[in-house]
Amino acid sequence: MSQRAYRYNHNFSKESFQRSLIALQHIEHQIECFSPYYNQTQLKTGIQKINKGDIIELTNQRKFLFDIGWYTLVIINNENQLYMSLDCLLEHLENDQLCTIFDFQLEVNYWQHQLDKSLEERDREKFFTASEKLNHYNNIADFNHSF
User: Does domain 19-99 fall into CATH 2.30.30?
Assistant: First the structure.
């Protein structure tokens, strides 16, 4: 296992690992701020920039707002906290803008294995494909220095 792939495996507790997402690209997420006594006139909006490589941890704090739906408190890079709608999180996952840390590490391990295999087989085409994919995931990880 390469030194780089090895370091991906050691920075998350089991609990936070299971609840963490990584941004695969830059996202401008529309945030909605509301008071506990929410009504439509109290809704304020803004933009939260989520950068490639940012870690988004899902917490157990959730809120349900009638006519809007479920929101969950997320922590971005252990700094910013905001409520994101469950629908928005699912949309970002479906559009491959976010993925779980587990899936991210699986991709890194898979492409590292493919790279090693292509070297053993001396397959130039597979080597370049695996190198390109592995570099893509390493570049995402490099945006966030906590890996």
Answer: yes
Q: Name the residue among 105, 93, 112 with its Cα closest to residue 8.
A: 105
Q: What is the pLDDT of residues 112-140, one digit of tens each?
A: 999 999 999 999 999 999 999 999 999 99
Cβ atoms of residues 73 and 59 within 8 Å = yes
Alpha helices in the chain (DSSP H): 3-7, 14-18, 86-94, 101-121, 124-143
Each domain of the chain, given as residue ranges in start order, spans 19-99
The closest of 46, 43, 23 to 104, measured between CA atoms, is 23
Rounded to whole angstroms, what are the CA distances from 49 to 8, 25, 31, 80, 82? 24, 11, 10, 11, 12
The pLDDT tens digits for 85-96 are 999 999 999 999
Q: Is the four-CA dihedral 124, 129, 130, 136 of positive or negative sign?
A: positive
